[in-house]
Design brief:
heterodimer, A: alpha+beta, Rieske Iron-sulfur Protein, six-stranded antiparallel beta sheet, 1 helix, 10 strands, B: mainly alpha, Cytochrome Bc1 Complex, Chain C, two-stranded antiparallel ribbon, 2 strands, 1% strand
Chain lengths: 164, 463
């Protein structure tokens, strides 16, 4: 047998095959992993709530009212100035359903005592941000709330209100 | 074709011979062979140092964990035949199990209490191994496998928690998945994959069912086999010795059968009896059917998570639920590999001074924890003191930094003022953090009432 004197930095046949097999194994593992992830993702799109809810005529909601819509997982609020706001009832801390307390005019989370005011702003931590909101639209005197995407926000802003 | 003088063996005797090749005669050689030739018994070595049999050294906690896992597998398999993993049928199937299936309630109770007991027993097992210094080389890797098994035990409990589909389950898992969502970058995605959607639904139940019944048990079986095998490969149990005693190099051996097997059988029988008795009189909790519209007040996670839930009341979620537990786990995993001056394997709490420091640290940990919870509850409002900072800093990074500096300072103080060796100082910090965690868990279980307000236990129980 002749010993091949390889140039420095050159890849021997054995090293090349090793590298090739290693790469193939890596690709196979990656494919398997991605397939497993996609397999688990298959059902994410099938949300039950997530459509547009027609809540009723504007007049049905007097200023200063808070109306829960359990199917849509949100509260429809009409502030004293007549502006509408839809708040996702999921606590921004850990996801508990936040009930409205009419005696204190606050949303108080039963899980970790986070409190939010009528516009969803944090009055009491541990909640890290205001309650998320859903887009409100008023068409033909009807209030519609789109629950397809919760809108995160850093604080309440009057521009978030919708007027009839 | 000469006729044999002796009669041929009867069928049953041939059958027995084919299964058990060597007759058991009771002498030493036979006892050794018995252990070697039996699949279950050969998890043990054929003989063991007589000192490792001391009950008050190991407390039989490893064997007890294995026993509970077997009991969980048996009762779990029974429950499989009754349970339906669909939201509109799960709760009813549990109700039917409780009221219509013979011994159904008892089997469910046994599964529930054995699962909870397993969390306690594996945690105690970890403490025993740490306090006797048995986690160092050559057992360092087995310590890591043990940690993985501890995590799997918690995940098994967590996934099983959802299956009854009652209020406890629904909101416990909601909070748990909410914690997961705070993992940086991938948290939201992780929580969505686990839940199979944005909120708990049919996909969540099926996911948890699959994890609880197949993925986790298989992983546990594999890691347990590895754990047991490594115990033998790493030289068996660490050998206990007195606090002033030199390491024992050569010890008298006794045969595993039956000097080890006998006490194991006794301990197993005592535990099983206690569990069955307990399960006869104390039912596993079952609250009303899950109601997505109504979070109960107070909404508490499973009891072993209440230490973390208590942290969540004091820290930003990213810090309280992810960073602090993550750091604690990383520290536990790194323990055997951190350099230390330890030659105290087999001595409970390292040394005489180690025992004093452990007691001192336990008292300090309890006082500091209660003190911190009270001060933070009634006097300290960091976000209000530091209004210019986001809450992640003011209620997270700042107190976390204070906590870590405090622990480093405590380590230094032990070294300086009590002349502790490094491993004694590490032990002190460990006990301090451990007592803190136990204290937080107890506060979460017994002292948190509606709205997570601090109350006395009898007031909490009244709600």
């Amino acid at each position: 047998m002749t010993t091949q004197v390889s140039q420095p930095g050159a890849v021997s046949r054995r090293e090349f095959l090793k590298l090739g097999w290693g790469l193939l194994a890596g690709v196979a593992a990656l494919e398997g992993g991605l397939a497993a992830v996609q397999f688990s993702l298959a059902r994410v799109a099938a949300g039950e709530f997530g459509g547009v809810f027609t809540c009723g005529p504007v007049e049905a909601f007097p200023p200063g009212s808070v109306t829960p819509f359990n199917e849509g997982r949100f509260y429809l609020l009409r502030l004293d100035d007549g502006g509408f706001l839809a708040l996702y009832r999921r606590c921004t801390h850990l996801g508990c359903a936040v009930p409205w307390d009419p005696t204190t005019n606050q949303f108080v989370c039963p899980c970790h005592a986070s409190a939010f005011d009528q516009t969803g702003q944090v009055l009491n931590p541990p909640a890290p941000r205001p309650l998320d909101r859903f887009a409100v639209a008023i068409q033909d005197g009807q209030v519609r709330v789109d629950t397809s995407r919760p809108l995160e926000r850093e604080q309440f802003d009057p521009s978030q209100l919708v007027y009839a | 074709m000469s006729e044999s003088t002796s009669a041929p063996d009867p069928f049953w005797k041939k059958l027995w011979r084919s299964a058990v090749r060597e007759p058991y005669t009771g002498d030493r050689r036979s006892r050794l062979r018995l252990v070697m030739n039996n699949l279950i018994l050969h998890l043990h070595p054929a003989q063991v140092p007589v000192r490792t049999l001391r009950f008050t050294y190991s407390w039989g906690l490893g064997g007890l964990s294995a026993l509970l896992v077997v009991l969980l597998a048996v009762t779990g398999a029974m429950l499989m035949f009754v349970y339906t993993p669909a939201p509109d049928q799960a709760y009813q199937s549990i109700m039917a199990l409780n009221t219509q299936v013979w011994y159904g309630q008892l089997v469910r109770n046994l599964h529930h209490w054995a699962g909870n007991a397993l969390v306690v027993v594996v945690a105690l097992h970890l403490l025993r191994v740490f306090f006797t210094g048995a986690f160092r080389e050559p057992r360092a890797f087995n310590w890591l496998i043990g940690l993985a098994l501890l995590l799997l035990t918690v995940v098994a409990n967590f996934t099983g928690y959802l299956l009854p589909w009652d209020q406890l389950a629904y909101w416990g898992i909601t909070v748990g998945a909410g914690i997961l969502a705070y993992v940086p970058v991938v948290g939201n995605w992780l929580s969505q994959v686990l839940l199979g959607g944005p909120e708990i639904g049919p996909a969540t139940l099926l996911n948890f069912y699959g994890l609880h019944l197949s993925v986790i048990p298989i992983a546990m079986l594999f890691l347990m086999s590895l754990h047991f095998w490594r115990v033998r490969k790493d030289g068996g149990l660490s050998v206990p010795r007195g606090v002033d005693e030199a390491p024992v190099l050569k010890d008298e051996n006794v045969t595993t059968f039956s000097d080890l097997v006998r006490p194991e059988a006794v301990w197993a029988t005592v535990t099983l009896t206690a569990l069955v008795l307990w399960s006869m009189f104390v039912n596993a909790p079952l609250e009303p059917l899950a109601n997505p519209d109504l979070s109960p007040n107070p909404a508490k996670a499973a009891w072993y998570f209440l230490g973390i839930q208590e942290l969540l009341l004091h820290f930003h979620p990213l810090i309280g639920a992810i960073v602090i537990p993550g750091l604690a786990l990383a520290a536990l995993a790194a323990l055997p590999y951190l350099s230390g001056d330890m030659d105290s394997v087999g001595v409970y709490f390292r040394s005489r001074r180690g025992r004093w420091l452990a007691a001192f640290s336990a008292a300090a940990g309890a006082l500091l924890t209660v003190g911190y919870v009270l001060v933070d509850e009634f006097y300290l409002d960091l976000p209000a003191l530091l209004p210019s900072l986001p809450t992640l800093l003011s209620n997270g990074v700042v107190p976390l930094a204070a906590l870590l500096l405090g622990l480093i300072g405590y380590h230094g103080a032990m070294r300086r003022f009590f002349r502790a060796t490094r491993c004694e100082a590490t032990l002190s910090v460990f006990v301090l953090v451990l007592t803190g965690f136990i204290g937080l868990t107890l506060i979460g279980i017994f002292f948190r009432g509606p709205g997570m307000a601090l109350l006395w236990p009898w007031e909490v129980a009244g709600h």
